[in-house]
UniProtKB/TrEMBL annotation:
It is a multi-pass membrane protein. Gene3D superfamilies: ABC transporter involved in vitamin B12 uptake, BtuC. It comes from Paenibacillus agri. Its main location: membrane. The keyword Transport applies. This is Iron ABC transporter permease. GO terms for molecular function: transmembrane transporter activity. The chain crosses the membrane at residues 55-76, 88-107, 113-133, 145-169, 233-262, 274-297, 303-323. Keywords: Cell membrane, Membrane, Transmembrane, Transmembrane helix, Transport. One of its GO terms (cellular component) is plasma membrane.
């Protein structure tokens, strides 16, 4: 049984890697100027600017962003035991969006250098507010954490709307950023993002036993002797670091952390040793395809990648709400 589980895991990982490679080649191939494959190889070998300077860093950022958001969502859903928990649901994405909008609209002269810093600071601030309001004597409870996150997220979205209305004439750049666009990303952005991805994913994988334990009910976790509140806070910090760094570089690409973790568990089961790597690959594939579609659907106009992830995520979010609403009704009927 165990051998069969790991065999299935290997097959799914191999398939996802193949699909990701295909998506990566297509991402390098298509854009404002379509480039034949032989020219891509020649440019990569010769160091020509089109692919190496513009498309390759954009592709890498799409992959890293997908990994970060998917793994962050997997951690949040595990520590809260709630399939609705995700960076964009618990306030982190909205906080980052608010920080970026403040820079873009209120202090536009800072936008080049200050945008990633402000977005990261906003995301971390939102996470701190959620934690402080969710904390009660004895620590934080998963349900309280999720509900507080939704409330804080709504509050930041209201502030974002207020700023966009107030600075309506200058809000076009902010609106594009809020939809999660990877336009004009460079190697500088890659350098900002990859250490967070490497560190966060490594910590998550090393914490697989704790993540598996936290998926059990509260009484069982306490009975096993796990320092539950300390572990939960450390994993929460890891999830916040992954999602905040992505928001700082890529904008608010939503629903990746909501959709991918349940799909990964459906494919390989609830063992975090298996579903965390699968989540990372699925997240990378989703954001890469979303960015590719944004470039090829209405050329030369670019549609932000976040719009395509939302088209997938929003119906799934409604589906989850309906399923969770139906479950209590079934239990009462019994």
């Amino acid at each position: 049984m165990k051998l069969r589980k790991w065999t299935r895991f290997g097959q799914i990982v191999a398939l996802l890697l193949l699909l990701l490679i295909i998506a990566a080649v297509l991402s390098l191939r298509f854009g404002a100027v379509n480039t034949p494959l032989r020219e891509i190889l020649a440019e990569l070998a010769g160091g020509e600017p089109l692919v190496l300077k513009y498309r390759l860093p954009r592709l890498i950022i799409a992959v890293l962003t997908g990994i970060n958001m998917a793994v962050s969502g997997a951690i949040l859903q595990s520590i809260t035991r709630n399939p609705l928990a995700a960076p964009d649901i618990v306030g982190v994405t909205a906080g980052g969006g608010f920080g970026a909008v403040v820079v873009l609209l209120v202090f536009p002269t800072w936008s080049a250098a200050g945008l990633p810093i402000a977005a990261f600071a906003g995301a971390v601030t939102a996470a701190v507010i959620v934690y402080l309001f969710a904390y009660q004597r004895g620590g934080i409870r998963p349900t309280r954490l999720a509900l507080t996150g939704v409330s804080v997220s709504l509050g930041f979205h209201s502030l974002i709307t207020f700023l966009i209305v107030k600075y309506a004439l200058d809000s076009s750049q902010a609106l594009v950023w809020l939809k999660g666009s990877l336009y004009a990303r460079s190697w500088q952005h890659v350098e900002m993002l990859w250490p967070w991805t490497l560190g966060g994913v490594t910590l998550a994988l090393l914490s697989h036993r704790q993540i598996n334990t936290l998926q059990l009910d509260e009484d069982t976790v306490t009975g096993l002797g796990l320092r539950i509140q300390l572990v939960r806070v450390l994993l929460l910090l890891t999830a916040v670091g992954l999602s905040a760094s992505s928001v700082a570089v890529s904008g608010t690409i939503g629903f990746v952390g909501l959709v991918i973790p349940p799909l990964s568990k459906w494919l390989v089961g609830p063992d975090s040793r298996l579903y965390l790597p699968v989540s990372a690959l699925l997240g990378a594939l989703l954001v890469t395809l979303a960015d590719l579609l944004g470039r090829v659907v209405l050329p030369p106009l670019e549609i932000p990648a976040g719009i395509f992830t939302a088209l997938i995520g929003a119906p799934y979010f409604i589906y989850l709400l309906l399923i969770r609403r139906a479950q209590p009704n079934k239990s009462r009927s019994r």
